[in-house]
Write a structure and sequence with these properties.
This protein has about 325 residues and is an alpha+beta fold. The chain has helices spanning about 1-10, 50-55, 60-70, 70-80, 130-140, 145-150, 230-235, 250-260, 275-285, 305-315, 330-335; strands spanning about 15-20, 20-25, 35-40, 45, 55-60, 125, 155, 160-170, 170-180, 185-190, 195, 200, 225, 240-245, 265-270, 290. The longest helix is centred in the first third of the chain and has 10 residues, at about 1-10. It is globular, with a radius of gyration of 22 Å.
């Protein structure tokens, strides 16, 4: 891919230097000279000034689009060929990549976004005999075992929780658990107050803002169905490209992951009451077609809908025009 990158830079008048491993150019975002490095093998780029601050790093085509000022499709065709597609990476990091001969005085060390972890011994696969209660819970939420097994969901009997993994290419980085029972508020005699159990718990030291749950669903997909939680995402199983932000807020890193994944369309499946976030994220995806995947009444979110109904919603989703105003009518959505 080195020859293709060199040709693109030369043809579009982009001045560059080289070292043994990288093309070195001025960054189009922070405007600092000689701070953007593109790995000559074509697998990565980073700006050593704004890469960590703004997440400006990842696949080389996203640097080349801004440097060369030509359409993404043309860049990808030149780099990968018209039919090629690469696996989506779960997060953006420079771990394992040495750009060689950087300016060490100005180098910003980049902490790996996520670390590989192992499942605890008492988190069982769903086809284990100890996972029967977890399987029944998922089925009660409209997720059949055959679908749940595709996502690597587990069950922890001591915690009475199902666990939704965050992994990429078979590597586990964290998880979120959801109580299968005992999740309703109750009166505590000892505390003399109503206690609300924590329904969802994220694994220790896991930086959920730097990852997307079910990110492997983006592999080869030209669109993303962006949702809040795991059940919302699972209900979009038939749509493909379904991922969860693991909360109402979509971080800058998560947006950059999506932009680096090769998607061309965005289906906005955030909850209707997140209308301000929907509007913000839509602006972040300027230049991408963005579709409205908010559920109709009486559903409060995609997680309440059957899989087939979400697929019908996906097939008929209207586009969110940049000039449209996104609003939330509480009574209309039954919230």
């Amino acid at each position: 891919m080195e020859a293709e990158i060199r040709a693109l830079l030369q043809e579009n008048g982009v001045s560059f230097k080289t070292n043994s491993k990288s093309f070195i150019v001025g960054c189009p975002r922070c405007r600092k000279p000689d701070k953007l490095y593109i790995y000559r093998a074509g697998s990565r780029f980073t700006c050593f000034v704004c890469g960590e601050l703004e997440g400006f790093r990842g696949k080389p085509e996203y640097a080349l689009v801004e440097l060369c000022g030509i359409p993404m499709k043309e860049i990808r065709d030149r780099l990968y060929g018209k039919s090629a597609s690469a696996p989506t990476e779960l997060f953006l990091t420079l771990e394992g990549f040495d750009f060689g001969n950087e300016d060490e005085e100005d180098y910003i060390e980049v902490e790996p976004a996520l670390k590989q972890v192992d499942w605890p011994f008492d988190f069982y696969p769903l086809d284990h005999k100890f996972s029967e209660k977890g399987v029944k819970y998922l089925e009660s939420r409209g997720i059949p075992l055959s679908v749940a097994m595709e996502y690597g969901i587990r069950y922890c009997p001591p915690k009475l929780s199902v666990a939704f993994p965050v992994q990429s290419q078979g590597v586990l980085y964290g998880w979120q658990t959801r109580l299968v029972e005992g999740d309703q508020p109750f009166w505590s005699d000892s505390m003399k107050k109503v206690v609300k159990p924590l329904k969802t718990i994220t694994s220790k030291d896991f930086k959920k803002e730097r990852a997307l749950m079910f990110a492997d669903r983006l592999n080869g997909s030209r669109h993303v169905v962006l949702t809040e939680g795991p059940f919302d995402s699972l209900k979009a199983h038939l749509c493909g490209g379904n991922v969860a932000a693991m909360g109402k807020a979509v971080s800058k890193f998560q947006i950059e992951i999506l932009k680096n994944s090769g998607i061309e369309k965005v289906y906005m499946g955030l909850d209707p009451d997140a209308y301000l976030e929907i509007d913000r994220v839509r602006k972040e995806f300027y230049g991408f077609p963005v579709y409205d995947l908010r559920p109709p009444a009486p559903y409060k979110d995609l997680g309440e809908m059957p899989l087939e109904a979400v697929k019908y919603l996906f097939d008929n989703a209207p586009i969110l025009h940049p000039t449209q105003v996104v609003i939330y009518l509480k009574n209309h959505f039954g919230a």
